[in-house]
User: What shape does this take?
Amino acid sequence: METQERKIDLYEVAEIKLSYSAKVKASQRPKVDSSRQVYEIFAQAWDINLIEFTEEFKVMLLSRANRVLGIVTISSGGTAGTVVDVKLVYAAAIKANASSIILAHYAKYIFM
Assistant: This one.
Protein backbone atom coordinates (compact mmCIF):
# COMPACT_ATOMS: atom_id res chain seq x y z
CA MET A 1 0.00 0.00 0.00
CA GLU A 2 1.39 3.32 -0.99
CA THR A 3 1.22 6.29 1.31
CA GLN A 4 1.12 9.69 -0.15
CA GLU A 5 3.04 12.30 1.77
CA ARG A 6 1.61 15.80 1.74
CA LYS A 7 4.00 18.69 1.82
CA ILE A 8 3.20 21.44 4.27
CA ASP A 9 2.65 24.76 2.57
CA LEU A 10 3.70 27.57 4.90
CA TYR A 11 1.27 29.91 3.18
CA GLU A 12 -1.68 27.86 4.47
CA VAL A 13 -1.16 28.81 8.13
CA ALA A 14 -3.20 31.53 9.77
CA GLU A 15 -1.91 35.07 9.64
CA ILE A 16 -2.04 36.95 12.94
CA LYS A 17 -2.39 40.70 13.05
CA LEU A 18 -2.23 42.89 16.13
CA SER A 19 -3.85 46.29 15.87
CA TYR A 20 -4.83 49.13 18.13
CA SER A 21 -6.76 52.19 17.04
CA ALA A 22 -6.59 55.17 19.38
CA LYS A 23 -9.46 57.61 19.08
CA VAL A 24 -8.02 60.14 21.55
CA LYS A 25 -4.78 62.06 21.16
CA ALA A 26 -2.06 61.08 23.63
CA SER A 27 -2.06 64.55 25.18
CA GLN A 28 -5.80 64.31 25.92
CA ARG A 29 -5.66 60.94 27.70
CA PRO A 30 -5.91 61.07 31.49
CA LYS A 31 -2.63 60.66 33.34
CA VAL A 32 -2.55 58.74 36.61
CA ASP A 33 -0.08 59.68 39.33
CA SER A 34 -1.80 58.21 42.37
CA SER A 35 -4.00 55.35 43.48
CA ARG A 36 -6.82 57.85 44.04
CA GLN A 37 -6.75 58.87 40.38
CA VAL A 38 -6.76 55.21 39.34
CA TYR A 39 -9.78 54.61 41.60
CA GLU A 40 -11.67 57.57 40.12
CA ILE A 41 -11.08 56.42 36.54
CA PHE A 42 -12.05 52.82 37.33
CA ALA A 43 -15.17 54.04 39.17
CA GLN A 44 -16.38 55.64 35.94
CA ALA A 45 -15.90 52.34 34.09
CA TRP A 46 -18.22 50.33 36.34
CA ASP A 47 -21.97 50.19 35.72
CA ILE A 48 -23.43 51.41 39.02
CA ASN A 49 -26.70 49.55 38.33
CA LEU A 50 -24.92 46.18 38.17
CA ILE A 51 -22.20 46.72 40.73
CA GLU A 52 -24.22 45.15 43.56
CA PHE A 53 -25.14 42.04 41.55
CA THR A 54 -22.10 40.94 39.56
CA GLU A 55 -18.38 40.58 40.01
CA GLU A 56 -16.18 42.11 37.34
CA PHE A 57 -12.49 42.11 36.52
CA LYS A 58 -11.07 45.02 34.53
CA VAL A 59 -7.62 46.05 33.34
CA MET A 60 -6.36 49.60 32.90
CA LEU A 61 -3.76 49.85 30.14
CA LEU A 62 -1.09 52.53 30.55
CA SER A 63 1.59 54.11 28.38
CA ARG A 64 5.13 54.73 29.62
CA ALA A 65 4.00 58.21 30.68
CA ASN A 66 1.16 56.68 32.76
CA ARG A 67 -1.46 57.93 30.31
CA VAL A 68 -4.55 55.73 30.19
CA LEU A 69 -4.71 53.92 26.86
CA GLY A 70 -7.98 52.27 27.80
CA ILE A 71 -9.88 50.03 30.19
CA VAL A 72 -10.97 46.57 29.17
CA THR A 73 -13.42 44.27 30.93
CA ILE A 74 -11.76 40.86 31.08
CA SER A 75 -14.58 39.00 32.77
CA SER A 76 -17.97 39.47 34.33
CA GLY A 77 -19.47 36.84 36.56
CA GLY A 78 -22.35 36.26 38.88
CA THR A 79 -22.81 36.99 42.55
CA ALA A 80 -20.30 34.37 43.65
CA GLY A 81 -17.34 34.88 41.36
CA THR A 82 -15.78 35.58 38.00
CA VAL A 83 -13.05 33.75 36.10
CA VAL A 84 -10.04 35.58 34.66
CA ASP A 85 -8.22 34.16 31.65
CA VAL A 86 -4.67 35.51 31.91
CA LYS A 87 -4.22 35.13 28.15
CA LEU A 88 -6.90 37.78 27.62
CA VAL A 89 -5.09 40.17 29.97
CA TYR A 90 -1.83 39.74 28.05
CA ALA A 91 -3.58 39.95 24.67
CA ALA A 92 -5.20 43.27 25.58
CA ALA A 93 -1.89 44.68 26.87
CA ILE A 94 -0.01 43.62 23.76
CA LYS A 95 -2.69 44.89 21.39
CA ALA A 96 -2.70 48.31 23.05
CA ASN A 97 1.11 48.37 23.22
CA ALA A 98 0.76 49.05 26.95
CA SER A 99 3.88 49.55 29.03
CA SER A 100 2.07 48.75 32.27
CA ILE A 101 -1.27 47.50 33.49
CA ILE A 102 -3.39 47.92 36.61
CA LEU A 103 -5.78 45.13 37.58
CA ALA A 104 -9.09 45.76 39.33
CA HIS A 105 -11.70 43.38 40.71
CA TYR A 106 -14.98 44.42 42.23
CA ALA A 107 -17.18 42.16 44.29
CA LYS A 108 -19.99 43.29 46.55
CA TYR A 109 -20.70 40.82 49.29
CA ILE A 110 -23.82 41.20 51.37
CA PHE A 111 -23.85 39.30 54.65
CA MET A 112 -27.14 38.67 56.41
Summary: The mean pLDDT is 83. The radius of gyration is 20 Å. The chain has two helices and three strands. The CA atoms of residues 75 and 84 lie 6 Å apart.
